[in-house]
Every structure is written in structure tokens, then in C-alpha cells.
């Protein structure tokens, strides 16, 4: 039996919140308060209060709870496991977040467990994905731009990945189905639906096998054009000009290529010097040296989302290994620039 996340009894210190329109906030959390017992929840409340120019006492008044409740939660005399229903709902109203998201911020509900079992809304799904894929300083706890369609900003590939990872939860499937019902069919889907019965009735096209796909790759060292053959299993190819080796993995008609070995030093000294420059943290993040720190933060968040192993879905161990290595390089480059700053 799962334990209750909040106490059902009402709070004796509950009062009406201040009748004022909330000022929008950035959705970030206070990195200086992450170590407090309240965790992400108290860090989000304090950051929101700071941006709105409120003290802890003013924050309690605006939320409609007692100063004692927030103070005990902030300094740790009140364990987070005893978060009562009134205070949890007040946090949800003040931050303009769904109720289950507050439980996840408070650490009372694991995001992975929530995506697998809980009756989540679309906004809960968005915040749970963030909590799993992002570091606390990269969170953006803002309501969806379109609250009627929270998943409107996700691409079809992201929706497909969400279904592959959490399709066993009926709530996730219902949210995905509701979003897809609002999206028009593509031209390819319309044509396939129109030609489906005709194509099934005519056995001639199935008798002739389609040729396997192939790709064209330009070598990163010598710029020679290489033809990438279709491989049933992950394999390797080598450039005949500079002997650079590439790992090749085909997923249906999509080809993933990653350089795994550079040419020898005596054969291509210029290319080796180029590879040495790849170790620069600016090159790893894809930025010009001396770029502003905001650009560094944006590049780091974008690359960490691109190479995060949880976003790959069902891929071969080789592709997962390459993504994990790239994920680690991005983190090390960011740490290096942060230390220099």
C-alpha cells in the first residue's frame, strides 16, 4: 500500500490568500536554497517570492498560510513528509502549478513513478519530463503556453518517445491521444489512407522489393564524399582517402554516423591538430570563444537534452555509448568554463 503523500486533516492556520493578481515569475528555482529540507519546493517558493519582492512573512500572507508553516518547512523542523493538504494546495495555487507537480517538487512523488502509475495531467507530464531530464538549475516551472493543449509544443518524435517510454500508463496515453486528435493528418498519411485499399489489392508492388536505402557522408577530415551502405547491424566504415573510421547505425531509413578514429599523425597532421581543438570547451558547446554566459547556459541545456540517454528510446548499445560519451563531454566543458568564470 503506498503511503499518503499529504495529510488529509485541514490546517488550523489556513486563511484566505491575498486577493491580488500574481506577478509572473521566471519559473526558476533558487539554487542557494536547494540544500534546504524543503528541496525544490521551498527553492521555487523562495525564488518566486524574491522576484515579487516579498519576505517570508509576506509570502505566507499571499499564500493564505501561517508564517509558522513556511518557516518550519524552510528550516527543517517540520519534515516534508508531514506536508498537509492545505499547504500543498496553497503552494500549487501560488506557483500556478498542478497539484501533483507540487508533490514531485516536494520529493513526495518520484517523477518516474508518476509517469508510470499516476493519473497525470498534460502539465504534470511536462514537469515530470523536466525533472527527469534537467538539472535543478535548468528547470523552468512555468504553466503550459496553451493549458488546453499542454503538449502542443512537443514534436511528433517527442510524443512518440513519450509513448514508448510511458505508454503503459493509461493517463499518459489519454493525454497523447487528446493532443493527436487536435493535429491534422500530414499529406503522407492522407495519401496512404487514400491508396491503402488499392495498394493492398494489387500484389505487383509487393512482389518487387524496394532497394535498401543508402546515404552520402562528407568526411570531416578530408571532405571526401563517402557513400554509406545500408547495414542490417551497427558497423563501421573507413574513408579511403584519410583512413578516418566512422561508426554507422541504421534505424529504418535514418542513418546515425559518429567518428570514432582519426587518421594517423604522420599521414594527416592538419586533421590531428583539428581534433586537438575539439577538446576546447567552446568547441564542444559549439560556441565562439568568449561568448556570453547566457549563450553557454543555452548551449549546455540544448546539448544535454539532445544527448540524454533517456531520450534515445530503443537504440543499439553502440549508439547509446556514443550518446553517453557526448553527454559527459558537454558536462565537463560546462564545468571547465564555469570554473574559469
UniProtKB/TrEMBL annotation:
In its UniProt entry, the species of origin is given as: Hydrogenophaga defluvii
InterPro entries cross-referenced by the UniProt entry: Cro/C1-type_HTH, DnaJ_domain, J_dom_sf
What name appears for this protein in its UniProt entry? J domain-containing protein
* Domain J residue range list: 280-341
Coiled-coil residue spans:
none
Q: Which PROSITE patterns match?
A: DNAJ_2
